[in-house]
Amino acid sequence: MTNLRIGTGYDVHQLKNNLPFLLGGVEVAHNKGVVAHSDGDIVLHAISDALLGAGGLRDIGYYFPDTDEKNKDLSSVKILEESLNLLKQKDLQPRNIDFVVVCEQPKIQPHVEDLKKSLSKILNIDASFVGVKATTAEGMGIIGEGNGIAVFAIASLENIQ
Fold first, then answer.
1. Which of 28, 45, 139, 142 is the most exposed place for a label (fewest CB within 10 A)?
2. Environment class of residue 59 by beta-carbon count within 10 Å: exposed (0-12), middle (13-18) or buried (19+)?
3. pLDDT digits 0-9 by tens, 15-56
């Protein structure tokens, strides 16, 4: 019998001109990027939190506080890998993930396959177990004005066989 666990994650950041724009380990060409203490890969942050939550662990702010200078410009891939190591210690591994990106620009659809491939590789799961969706804020609030981005994620874990 599989011990299935489910967790959710959420992250939101401002967007500013001339910053890198990383999503799920994929660099996306855009005139704005994510303002963050780390490299700002908001997809990996939300997924990490979803996985940690499913494992009954604390959030990434606990393990990688933005008040600690050693986390300045930290790779979000490293955050996700460390999160996976914490889960492995509990004999847990990702089963699937699903997330939705909320932003006005850039359009996410052209990047879906690259996102699925990247996340499949990082998480060591088949790309068919990675769900990618996007929507806008319909022009409302900081996200709707094009100055912010949010990601909602859900993840499931299973026992390591």
1. 139
2. middle
3. 999 999 999 999 999 999 999 998 999 999 999 999 999 999
